[in-house]
Amino acid sequence: MGYIEPAPIKDKSNPFESMMSRFNIAAEVLGLDEQVYNVLKSPSKQVSVSLPITMDDGSIKVFEGHRVIHSNILGPSKGGIRYAMDVHLDEVKALAAWMTWKCAVVDIPYGGAKGGIKCNPRQMSAGEIERLTRAYTQAMTGVFGPDRDIPAPDMGTGPREMAWLMDEYSRSMGTTVNAVVTGKPLVLGGSLGRVEATGRGVMVSALAAMEKLKINPYHANIAVQGFGNVGSFAALLLAERGCTVVAVSDISGAYYNEKGIDIKKAIEYRDNNKGSLEGWDGAELMADAEELLLLDVDVLVPAAVEDVIHSGNVDKIKAKLIVEGANGPTSAEADRVINEKGIMAVPDILANAGGVTVSYFEWVQNRLGYKWTRERVNRRSDRIMKDAFDKVYQASQKYDIPMRIAAYVVAIDKVAETYKFRGGF
Ligand SMILES: NC(=O)C1=CN([C@@H]2O[C@H](COP(=O)(O)OP(=O)(O)OC[C@H]3O[C@@H](n4cnc5c(N)ncnc54)[C@H](OP(=O)(O)O)[C@@H]3O)[C@@H](O)[C@H]2O)C=CC1
Ligand SMILES: O=C(O)CCC(=O)C(=O)O
């Protein structure tokens, strides 16, 4: 096919190109129709805004915000909002496309989107973050909507920001619209199980992969990079299933205990320490935090940021299994070495899809005006995650391709099939 672009991509490259390099391989495996390929290779909408905010000291600071809708062919677009200093349009574009593939892999009726504001929430007061969130929501009022585009939390955001977003949007509409956003506090129509949902999906994927690799969870050692929403719940839930979590990390460093870390205590410490593990003495502080990725463990869970596994360190990775809690933690160049080494990598668009799955349940409950029990939420999301894992695993066997490409194949196949019936171009 003429549209495959074989040009090599440099490590730490443009994240959208990194996404495209996997998309291209999967498109070739499937023999994807060229017209569908051309539609999917570009986002359907990109909105960038400047947000002037009055800071607590009276100065006015202008922040850069984005919302990218990659596709809404499967339904309203869905995806989180990230607050971080390295947010930029190409990253948001890649994250939006990953959401399209992720929703298709778990077979929920959403397209893909993502938002981001370039800011450092750790250095801002709650009032400043609230004003910024409300300004962003105002700017995106014509983009968001329960049948159009439904945001959710991502790095640097959580239920508090989603509450402000819901309130600001509802004020603009003159009525309470709780289904416009997911990941809300329970009292505003949030779903039981959403806070831990992404980590729980990582746990379900990890156990399913361990079964294939014949790794006994009770004998498995695990290292988790990132101790925020995704990493801490993944660590906690895997420890509850009998695994030994020997290392965890956040920006303050990596903490190691070969006998196993008491994850409950680590979470308690973090929660009483402004969200940071800094100063924690429940495990040994590693001299070099990057070494966490290179530990001789059975399972590595990168659950922080993009491109942490790259051509400079992939040779030294010893884990048998990588389960991607973060979006895009492995650079496209590192894929080849991972495959050559025979490491199974459960890709982001599958492993971390538990979050958007329970977001979907939240939206369904909001529209029903009804609440499900935690047990029902967990049972249904575990089933969706396990079914998705099995479908991707089968595709990897059928086409003799790695799990990452298999996940893209499953996703792109569904989107292409939808285009076949909907047409419209
Ligand atoms: N929240 C969700 O539902 C979903 C999130 N994801 C993805 O998971 C990843 C993590 O998101 P989430 O847990 O929500 O974010 P959080 O903001 O809750 O946590 C991020 C964590 O990563 C740590 N961190 C950041 N940079 C590094 C680094 N270089 N090395 C080690 N640790 C680091 C942070 O440390 P510190 O606190 O010290 O800054 C923090 O512990 C992101 O890629 C996100 O897109 C994917 C699906 C859903
Ligand atoms: O919960 C959601 O809707 C989206 C979560 C998200 O941003 C992600 O899966 O990367």
Automatic annotation (TrEMBL):
Keyword Iron among record annotations: no
Gene3D superfamilies, alphabetized: Leucine Dehydrogenase, chain A, domain 1, NAD(P)-binding Rossmann-like Domain
Keywords: Oxidoreductase
Keyword Protein biosynthesis: no
Record domain Glutamate/phenylalanine/leucine/valine/L-tryptophan dehydrogenase C-terminal: where: 191-423
Record family assignment: Belongs to the Glu/Leu/Phe/Val dehydrogenases family.
Protein name per the record: Glutamate dehydrogenase
Source organism per UniProt: Roseivirga thermotolerans
